[in-house]
Amino acid sequence: SMSSCLNSLSGTAYEDFIRPYFPNATEKQASNTMKILTFSIGCICFVLVFVVEHLGGVFSIGIAFSGITSGTLLGLFAMGMMSRRFNTTGALWGSIISIVVVGYIMIGAQINIYNGNLRYETLPLHVGQCDAQK
After folding, report:
1. Could you read off the pLDDT of 4-47 as tens digits, one per residue?
2. Does residue 99 contact residue 69 with C-beta atoms inside 8 Å?
3. Is-contact 28 86, C-beta < 8 A?
4. C-alpha to C-alpha distances, 9 to 15, 36, 39, 57, nearest whole angstrom
5. On the CB side of 115, how many CA atoms lie within 13 Å of its CA?
6. What share of the chain is helix, strand, coil (3-state, %, to 5)?
7. Which pLDDT value is given to residue 24?
8. Contact 61/55 with Cβ under 8 angstroms?
9. pLDDT category of residue 134 using cuts at 50, 70 and 90
């Protein structure tokens, strides 16, 4: 549920980013800090709902961003499985180049979709003229 996600996120943020700077904080102070973090993150999520509303194809943008990293990881995995000749420097530069090239393609595609130069045809939702119905 949403509350468990917000609580997990605030707990992780507290443990990783705040607690190292305040190691002697009491349980009450930690609890109050996490409550403030939960409320703040919830407010940010609420505001982002109105931002996402104007993005349009959020699903396609999410898949495109996922594709950038997934393709790079697949390349690294395949590289490691196919040969022992590859080293850390080659893997690092290959990953950077992959992210830059695929990111450039993805950003260009999203700009063209936004400008109307690239359109995906939607499939019909009715089956009236479907060949399988005859």
Report:
1. 889 999 999 999 999 999 999 999 999 999 999 999 999 998 99
2. yes
3. no
4. 10, 12, 11, 26
5. 7
6. 75, 0, 25
7. 92
8. yes
9. low
pTM passes above 0.90? no
Supply the pLDDT for residue 133. 56
CB 81 within 8 A of CB 116: no
**Nearest alpha carbon to residue 9 among 44, 47, 41, 48:** 41
Instruction: Tell me if 69 sits within 8 A of 98, measured CB to CB.
Output: no
Per-residue 3-state assignment (H helix, E strand, C coil) for the chain: CHHHHHHHHHHHHHHHHHCCCCCCCCHHHHHHHHHHHHHHHHHHHHHHHHHHHCCCCHHHHHHHHHHHHHHHHHHHHHHHHHCCCCCHHHHHHHHHHHHHHHHHHHHHHHHHHHHCCCCCCCCCCCCCCCHHHC
The confidence score (pLDDT) of residue 28 equals 95
Give yes or no for a contact between 1 and 24, defined as CB atoms under 8 angstroms apart.
no
Look at residue 119 and give its three-state secondary structure.
coil
